[in-house]
């Protein structure tokens, strides 16, 4: 079964045109029906009137023949009247009181009548009857016993006979049909012109302005705010057009204001980010720098022993190394550094990354490395440090203890390395920003958001990928995929990318 078209998708023109046409057709049918009823009533009355006139004329023409009672003369008079008078094929007859025909002339296809004759003395009778498909009007008038007739008829007899005239109805109907046709044509043309006028008026006054508004709305939707529609006359459509123009102006002004506020907000966020970054960097550098400064002051004290000097020297070296690491992480944001790619064992990389971190006693480490892993072509120092940053991030996510799981397995042309923790997880609204430089949810002094950004950049430099999945309260899992074949050519500067390029 075909689906009925949703009326909401029909055009305004159609919604107006269909009811108008329906009303026009209904009015046209009502006019024709009313005209047909009126004309039919008029036809009946006209037929009876014609019948009575013809009957009266025939009675006058037969008067002399009836007075003398000459049947032959009466028949000849009937023949002459039917041939000379402007009448359709008709029949004229005179019937006796007992209903028998005295004379009958004219159209012989009209059969004799079988209905009773009961008119009063001063009254004519008219009725319609059918002969096959043809219809006739019968007018019966009485032939009274007038004084001049009483020489031959008894004065006690009031009616001598009956005069019948049968006329076909079709010629009257043809005249009325022509009238009805003329009425139908005039009414149809009038209603059609009215419908066309209504549709054109709706097209000009409603549909065209609405289409103009719709086109203007499409342009505004596309981002252009300099659109104005013609307001038109002081009617509802004109008022709608003016309101639309006012709305476009207000939207343009609101957008301009919004853009300005966005710029201000972006500048404020940038300044806040720079301030937070500066505070974090200052705190990160200040801690080892303070230790270096105190150790440098104490190492030259006269009473310092050789063992104390060696320990202070180690503090200085450790603090210097920490500062160098911080500076190196910062440099990844701005410098293009070529990779020193060599063929390395994945298990050794994972163990080196794990060995470089101090594991708290309340955290259990599980290592599940598949045997016979293919070697990868990587920059040893950078990839170990990238994985180490992920391990550090996992350890920081479990301040109350937990489990850290590192696994590696071979994929299709790649090696997959997973780092999973059972910490608090990452909030869903933060997942899309964890690899952004300087993005961190920790307090100032606990990191400044370069660890994950550095790991992301390094993996991307090697032609690999890094993904994250996390569920708040149940932990986080990072997956690194490294291609077995070299992912970048360190000798071609075009392949060396900084963090911002890796994020694109």
Structure report:
- It is built from ten helices and twelve strands.
- The protein has 504 residues and is α+β, with helices and mostly antiparallel strands.
- It folds into three domains: 7-176, PAS domain (Beta-Lactamase, 2-Layer Sandwich); 235-331, Signal transduction histidine kinase, dimerisation/phosphotransfer (DHp) domain (Helix Hairpins); 337-503, Histidine kinase-like ATPase, C-terminal domain (Heat Shock Protein 90).
- The strands form three sheets. It has a five-stranded antiparallel beta sheet with strand order 2-1-5-4-3.
- Strand 9 and strand 10 form a beta hairpin.
- The longest helix is centred in the middle third of the chain and has 64 residues, at 236-299.
- The chain is rod-shaped.
- The two termini are 53 Å apart.
- Residues 488-504 have low confidence and may be disordered.
